[in-house]
Each structure stands twice: as C-alpha cells, then as structure tokens.
Design brief:
mainly alpha
Length: 68
C-alpha cells in the first residue's frame, strides 16, 4: 500500500514542482518516472495473470490425463 501511495503522489510532486518554477526538464523527468512506473505495475499484473492462467491450464491437463 505504501508503494501505491508514493506512486499516486508523483503527479502531485510534478504539479508542486511546476508551481515552484522548477525547470521543465525536472517536471518532465518526474512525469517520465511516473509513466515508467505505471507501465511496470501494469506489466507485473499482466504477468501475474498469465502465470495464473498457465497454472490453471496445467491443472486441467493433469486432470484430463488422470481421467483417461
């Protein structure tokens, strides 16, 4: 949960940096870090789902072989 909270605060940090007059490169880097972390989180859950589906498929194959 702490990671999600930090991840959710990144856009707020970018807005604060923008309001404080930070260079556009810094704001861009903050946005890039947020986008990369979002892709990593999505990839993690995608792989988790693929692993679950593969385990389910393997379980069904084992059951079918036992039934024969």
């Amino acid at each position: 949960m702490k990671r999600f909270t930090v991840w959710a605060l990144i856009p707020i940090a970018a807005a604060a940096a923008s309001d404080s007059g930070a260079p556009i490169e810094i704001i861009g880097l903050i946005g890039l870090a947020w986008a990369v972390s979002a892709v990593c989180v999505l990839e993690y859950f995608h792989r988790k789902e693929l692993t679950r589906a593969q385990h389910e498929l393997n379980r069904r194959i084992r059951e079918r072989r036992k039934a024969q």
